[in-house]
Design a protein that fits this description.
heterodimer; A: Rossmann fold; four-stranded parallel sheet; 4 strands; about 45% helix; globular; B: mainly alpha; Helix Hairpins; two-stranded antiparallel sheet; 2 strands; rod-shaped
Chain lengths: ~110, ~220
């Protein structure tokens, strides 16, 4: 039985606590990296992470990318939508196809 | 290719021919795998894009609501309200096999049977904006879970497609031409050897005939 975690700055994520997800407010990238590493080793199936934080955790995210669990998913935070989530999807397409054919078709 | 030392023997030729047959078959199979993976990946990634757009819009709307709720309430009250969540979500993860890529499949369960049992506070001291905010987040949550499943699947499939593509290309452009070249080289060499043996034998025969009977054959 797995759990779901939400990682990011407190203002962006406290609402998720009401839904029954576990929230881990972190202040900076170092703390975030440590928290993410911890979560990866525990029984979490999904880790939602704010885009602002995930932009600062490049290598850590790469490490999680090829493992089956957890799924690390960027979500927009309260301050802005940096487009990081869409960037990750684009990267997947580029990796698989060789060039981005999904987001250019508009 | 003559860059590598190969021994022009019949045994080597048989070995190479077998290897070529395996390589050709492997190439065909891998190419089929790549095509099918690609088809499924493209379907999935379109779904991923759709879900992501919806989730991002939903979360942004919810964040706006939360901002409003915070503006109308004291921080302490808000913290207390959300301090002890009533609901708890747990996820069951199964592994689905798509063309030998293992992708996770999530089903989530809530602790209390009523999914709408999300308000962990009495309504007396909190602003009604908070109720709306929590509700809007709850509405987007099923999509978030679908997104997690879909996006992880896409990432894993992308890795596998990249690997398969490299293998197909290596077989198609390196392995198979090299093997064909080597096979050609060996069979040419063997033919050449055979011709030279033939000539040598003819020559010896001529010499023997001349010695025995004084024939002049050339």
């Amino acid at each position: 039985m797995y759990k779901i975690a939400v990682l990011g700055d407190r203002d962006s994520i406290y609402g998720f606590a009401a839904l029954g997800l576990e929230v881990f407010p972190v202040a900076g990238p170092e703390e975030g990296a440590r928290a993410l590493r911890n979560l990866c080793e525990q029984e979490y199936a999904v880790v939602y992470i704010t885009e602002a934080l995930s932009a600062q955790l490049g290598p850590e995210l790469e490490r999680c990318r090829e493992n089956l669990l957890p799924a690390v998913i960027p979500i927009p935070g309260v301050h802005s939508n940096t487009g990081m989530g869409i960037q990750m999807v684009k990267r997947s397409v580029e990796q698989a196809v060789g060039s981005d054919i999904i987001f250019n078709e508009k | 290719m003559a860059s590598k030392q190969i021994t022009p023997t019949r045994m080597e030729l048989t070995r190479l021919k077998k290897k070529l047959a395996t390589a050709t078959r492997g190439h065909k199979l891998l190419k089929d795998k790549r095509d099918e993976l690609m088809r499924q990946f493209l379907d999935k990634v379109r779904e991923n894009k759709r879900l992501r757009e919806r989730v991002e819009a939903g979360i942004q709307a919810a964040n706006k609501n939360f901002l409003l709720a915070r503006a109308g309430m004291q921080d302490q009250v808000l913290n207390t309200a959300l301090l002890a969540p009533k609901q708890r979500v747990s996820v069951e993860s199964e592994v689905e096999n798509v063309m030998s890529v293992e992708i996770p499949k999530f089903t989530f369960q809530t602790r209390s049977p009523d999914e709408n049992d999300i308000f962990s506070y009495g309504f007396a001291f909190t602003s009604s904006d908070l109720d709306g905010a929590v509700q809007s987040l709850a509405d987007v949550f099923p999509d978030m879970l679908a997104l997690a499943e879909c996006e992880k699947g896409c990432q894993l499939m992308a890795v596998e497609i990249e690997k398969t593509r490299r293998r197909v290309n290596a077989l198609e452009h390196v392995m198979i031409p090299e093997l064909q070249e080597n096979i050609k080289y060996i069979s040419m060499k063997l033919d050449e050897n055979e011709r030279s043996t033939q000539i040598r034998l003819m020559k010896v025969k001529d010499m023997m005939l001349q010695e025995a009977h004084g024939y002049e054959t050339f």
